[in-house]
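Why should sequence recovery work at all? Because a backbone constrains its sequence more than one might expect. Tight turns favour small or flexible residues, buried strands favour hydrophobic ones, and helices have their own preferences. The token representation captures these environments compactly. In the example below, the structure is given first.
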């Protein structure tokens, strides 16, 4: 069975220690899902199949707009994004903020867990 390139990662520096990969100034994209992620640094834990992205994390989505946070856990095979800390979502005339993000890319479900507040521009 042939595999199709789905995720692409670009970075300024890259290092591997065992099954752990480290990168600085990272750009991740998945064109079929319309998703782009920027971060100051990323760690990929192969055994857990997850990325930990830190520092000025910016997620650009076609559907939900732009999402900003300081730390993001990303499970590419599960299409799942998680953030424990503060999150800001900007989309057209709407700005949402809160903490604790769960975003299921496959279902398109996005949820802010705590202290969610919205600002609208008319």
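From this structural description, the recovered sequence reads:
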């Amino acid at each position: 069975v042939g595999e199709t390139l789905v995720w692409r990662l670009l970075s300024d520096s890259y290092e591997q220690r065992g099954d752990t990969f480290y990168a600085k100034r990272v750009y991740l994209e998945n064109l079929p899902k319309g998703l782009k992620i920027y971060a100051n640094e990323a760690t990929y834990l192969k055994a857990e199949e997850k990325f930990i992205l830190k520092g000025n994390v910016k997620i650009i989505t076609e559907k939900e707009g732009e999402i900003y946070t300081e730390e993001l856990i990303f499970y590419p095979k599960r299409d799942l994004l998680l953030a424990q800390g503060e999150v800001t979502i900007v989309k057209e005339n709407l700005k949402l903020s809160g903490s604790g993000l769960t975003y299921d890319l496959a279902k398109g479900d996005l949820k802010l867990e705590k202290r969610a507040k919205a600002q609208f521009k008319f």
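A few observations help interpret the result. The chain has a mean pLDDT of 90.
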